[in-house]
Amino acid sequence: MLAEFAFLKCRIVSDHITRKAKRSLGIYNCLGKELRNSFIRLETINSHSVYQSLPGISAIVGGSVYIPDIKIILKKKFCYYNKRNIFTVYYLTNTLMIEIQNLSFGYKRKKLLYKNLTLSLNVGSIYGLLGKNGAGKSTLLKNFMGLLFPTTGNIAVNGFVPRKRWPAFLETIYFIPEEVYVPALTINGYKNLFAPFYPKFSEEQFYSYLDQLDVKDKGKLNSLSFGQQKKFIIAFALACNTRVLLLDEPTNGLDIPSKIKFRKLISGVFTDDKIIFISTHQIRDLDNLIDRVIIVDNGELLLNASISEIADKLCFKSVSDIPSTGKVLYTEDSLKGHAVVIENTEHEDSKINLEHLFNAVTENPVVAKSIFNH
Amino acid sequence: MIGFPGLVLTVVLILYVIIKALSGFDMAQRITFFVGLAGGSFFLGSFVFGYFSSNASGSSFLTLPASHFEKWLCGILIAGVFYPIVFLIFYYGMDTGFVALYHNGLDPSSPFYKQAYESVYTFDLSGVIAGNIYILFFIYTGAMLLGSLYFNKVSVIKTAIALCIICLVIFGTNWLFATLLFGNIDDAAPFNHVAVPLGNDVGSIELPAGIAKVCKCAFLYVMPATFWILSFTRLREKEF
User: CA angle A87-A89-A93, nearest 5°?
Assistant: First the structure.
């Protein structure tokens, strides 16, 4: 994990922190370094929580802190302290966006959906979150968004703790739930009311996306069909230009041409400084769109790999006879014989079949984990 | 949000006319003031934080980039400030109009003119009855704001039931203790007095002045404030 970050030789040590001493603590070695729009990481020897003393900056132990403006930092000696703790501060590259550490979550305390889930999502990727019904896909997105709170563990999104739902955090993230809500407003009315909440909203892009998705201005939004409402919200969300975009079953309710337009639009608007996170059980809708696949089942992370890594480690092909040697993760009878997913020991090139991949990983989680070294 | 206050004001107007015809001005003024202010605000409170009846609208509300305080303040301003102001203006106009109509309709040459004239006055918006209704308004609105954040579906009904249960428990407990302490009782108002029959008469046992003041203060200020502040805390902690 830490290998991804550049270590800044920044170690703050204090055994006896008094109120006076708190003020004297600071990340001195950060002074003079470029921290704008960057993340720093806080680590403690034990895992007690870090008190936060800087307005507008959130921190979690082991998590990252987003520094919105260099001027604030360099003029102040800011301190993160905890009684009898030793802090080590790392300077991170500007890649990490969502970090989950030992997340446990359950709707009932005794029945946890996720247990000790640890996951890092970096910018510059379109993630596809796959899982069975009830696997907790929407729950995970809601945890990212701060709509649900972890039972234990930490989540940091853009350096913020989502559960606090600070406006500065909500400006950087947009969540499209499976069922969208539109008030009784016209398209312009909606834009005029909600767009000012998103500083990077682009009116030009908004109308362009509406046009591309074929959403016509036909009076009040709530009188539109479900699919049209969904396309409207997708257009609005994309025009907000948030750094993180979470989509929960975005293609549900869309007709076939709209699904294609949706895929084109997502790949068109995606830039390297963003994360797009798509949760779906309609795997085919994500074909040629995502570049990383996350599979969760029974509250466990089974796979978190890039498309190239999957293609490198697994082979998807049709065979007349099921191979007796090697790791066979999945077989399915087909017209041409058997469709199989096997470990790619021969370094063969094959086209990834997400449906087969999903079945292979969920049916053989242990083998899949051993192949992907999880 | 705009239609609902309009509907309440219309209902108040119709109620006023009907009750006035059936039971006279006094009853019409009291009932409509209670229904319009405390009742109307109670229902409006359920709309203000009524986004949680569906997954989509709840998520949309909570993820809007505004602080919890701003969202809470919007609710407070709508249900606790703007609506009461609109209602009071409407009520004052309506009541004054009806009373003036009544006064103008009287025959000045009638021997009972003065008596009839003085029997009807506009509702005293700063009187004791109005004061009690203001308290109920604060309590009901606060309870509804809180209730709509606790109960996602049909929050109006659930909150109303919860309020009824709380009232029943308070009255019941008070009655039980009063009966245990004084035996046969005539009436028992929580934290106020116990009426005990004494032969053909009824005696009233009241709380000592100091304790009565504390109870009154709790009822007037602490309880409404608790509901209103708790609704803010609940909004911050709301998961959806």
Answer: 160
pLDDT of A353 higher than 60? yes
With contact defined as beta carbons under 8 Å apart, do B196 and B203 qualify?
yes
For residue A177, give the nearest of B51, B56, B68 by CB distance.
B56
Calculate the CA dihedral of residues A144, A146, A147, A153 and round it to 10 degrees.
Answer: 70
Beta bridge partners of A246: A175, A277
What angle is formed at CA A279 by the lines to CA A278 and CA A284, rounded to 5 degrees? 85
Q: Does B23 touch chain A (CB under 8 A)?
A: no
Residue A374: predicted pLDDT:
57
Note whether ipTM > 0.90 here. Answer: no
In angstroms, the CA B64 to CA B67 distance is: 9
Task: Check CB contact under 8 Å for B65 and A148.
Answer: no
- Confirm or reject contact between A198 and chain B (CB < 8 A): yes
Nearest CA to A360 out of A350, A248, A275, A249 is that of A350
**pLDDT of A209:** 92
Option in B64, B68, B239 nearest A149 (CB): B239
Kindly state whether B56 is in contact with chain A, defined as any CB-CB distance less than 8 angstroms. yes
Residue type at A21 in one-letter notation: A
The first and second tokens of residue B170, run together, are 């308070």
